[in-house]
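Hi support team,

I've been running sequence recovery on a batch of backbones for a student project. Most finish fine, but this one hangs at about 90% for roughly twenty minutes before it completes. I'm not sure whether the input is malformed or the queue is just slow. I've pasted the structure tokens below so you can try to reproduce it. Let me know if you need the job ID as well.

Thanks,
M.K.
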């Protein structure tokens, strides 16, 4: 029997709930036919948004939703998405060159912020640094945050049905500016960031401004950004880093070698966190440049197993994707002192998705279940965990209760695991949630939406052992004695 050592005296830090965020871009079927169906739809909805998704996001206590992009944000004019929907302009969607799509602006600022409120999540807005001015973004902040009746923008917001301010605090200042967001150098971007951030900070109190960080392992970008802010100063509260672990074989019909290849790619997240953080520390920027991994997940190149091919970049989600989710969230937990927030890409009908929908149908994916299983970590204090090489694990304590999450990274080997606590005693009562039955290709479909579900067990005499099948995921909660 293999052991997992739970070393509670070695505390890491508090896990920011915002690490469990999601991303919702105006791309493919994420917004339209995804979260939005319209008030007159036969699909059960609240204010035009799918009730199924709202209910499930509330159940998983998803704390943060990023919007409107992504690359979409870098040509988005927020004014297009306010006021009478019948009079809103139709624009070329950024992704038009991929799928010929146009943006009807049915879902704009007020609608999205309403969606966040319905889901119980805070908004994280991405400001267009490429094709609008700092004044345009200042006006957007004015529109969403100025006190009732104080400014022309606040009065316009009231005319559009929301007199009270939204008090949006999280703002991304540009997106992927190293490529689609203007194809900038780190030095050019840093100068632009300083200009935008200075105006944005002046617009509303208490904003958190997140700078565009690097793509994957572009440590030169991180160095250029940190150096520019260190030398010249600017308000900055985090640095976005993007990493898609790519694909390995068919979305569903992958081999065990391809399973292992994808897991290896996903595990690289730890290296990226370590190396970017080492640059941040070299400039003494720990308080300004906490990592914001606001795009992450698998980006498969195949769309097999789907009911529709109409949603750009949509992909099926199997137990393999769920294991990638689990090990990634475990990495975030184990590095919580370095990470301000994260958002998986994306919410529905796209890449590493939590939901798939088509018309009246909507289902959860195995990845959704991971988020729901791991939610007890939020706001917990992480402590050190040591286990076998093929086991990904993280642990936290909150209100006298430990949450331990485990993923079996092997596609073939089952594990019998014994918990070995250091510095505390494990209580006799435990709740054990398990995902996976040994079918590493298992996934949910519209015809079989509950093929992959969580199995919950309440143990009144917990013996500190856990059986974890190959490709399986477990969440264990128990009291501390």
């Amino acid at each position: 029997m293999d052991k997992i050592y739970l070393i509670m005296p070695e505390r890491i830090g508090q896990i920011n709930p915002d690490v469990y965020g999601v991303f919702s871009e105006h791309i493919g079927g994420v917004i339209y036919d995804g979260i939005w169906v319209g008030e007159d739809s036969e699909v059960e909805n609240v204010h035009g948004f799918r009730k199924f998704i709202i209910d499930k996001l509330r159940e998983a206590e998803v704390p943060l939703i990023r919007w409107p992009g992504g690359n979409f944000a870098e040509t988005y004019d927020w004014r297009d998405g306010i006021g009478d929907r019948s009079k809103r302009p139709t624009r070329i969607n950024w992704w038009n060159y991929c799928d010929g799509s146009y943006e009807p602006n049915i879902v704009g600022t007020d609608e999205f912020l309403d969606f966040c409120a319905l889901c119980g999540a805070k908004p994280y807005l991405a400001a267009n640094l490429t094709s609008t001015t700092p004044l345009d973004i200042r006006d957007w902040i004015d529109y969403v945050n100025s006190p009732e009746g104080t400014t022309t923008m606040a009065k316009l917001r009231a005319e559009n049905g929301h007199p009270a301010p939204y008090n949006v605090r999280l703002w991304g200042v540009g997106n992927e500016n190293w490529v689609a967001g203007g194809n900038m150098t780190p030095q050019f971007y840093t100068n632009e960031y300083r200009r935008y951030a200075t105006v944005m900070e002046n617009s509303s109190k208490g904003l958190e401004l997140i700078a565009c960080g690097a793509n994957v392992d572009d440590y030169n970008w991180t160095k250029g950004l940190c150096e520019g802010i260190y030398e010249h100063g600017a308000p900055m509260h985090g640095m976005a880093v993007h990493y898609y672990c790519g694909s390995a074989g068919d979305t569903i019909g992958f081999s065990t070698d391809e399973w292992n290849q994808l897991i290896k790619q996903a595990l690289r997240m730890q290296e990226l966190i370590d190396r970017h953080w080492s640059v941040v520390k070299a400039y003494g920027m720990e308080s300004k440049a906490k990592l914001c991994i606001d795009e992450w997940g698998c980006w498969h190149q195949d769309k097999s197993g789907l009911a529709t091919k109409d949603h750009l970049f949509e992909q099926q989600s199997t137990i393999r994707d769920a294991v990638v989710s689990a090990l990634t969230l475990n990495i975030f937990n184990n590095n919580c002192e370095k990470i301000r927030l994260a958002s998986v890409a994306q919410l529905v009908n796209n890449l590493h998705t939590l939901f798939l929908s088509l018309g009246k149908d909507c289902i959860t994916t195995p990845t959704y279940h991971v988020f729901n299983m791991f939610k007890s970590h939020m706001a917990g204090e992480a402590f050190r965990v040591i286990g076998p090489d093929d086991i990904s694990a993280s642990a936290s304590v909150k209100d006298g209760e430990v949450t331990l999450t485990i993923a079996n990274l092997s596609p073939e080997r089952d594990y019998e695991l014994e918990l070995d606590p250091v510095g505390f005693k494990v209580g006799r009562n435990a709740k054990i949630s398990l995902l996976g039955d040994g079918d590493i290709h298992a996934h949910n479909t519209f015809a079989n939406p509950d093929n992959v579900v969580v199995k919950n067990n309440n143990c009144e005499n917990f013996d500190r052992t856990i059986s974890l099948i190959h490709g399986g995921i477990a969440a264990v909660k128990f009291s501390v004695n």
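--
Follow-up from support: It reproduced on our side and the slowdown came from queue contention, not your input. The chain is about 25% helix and 30% strand. No action needed from you.
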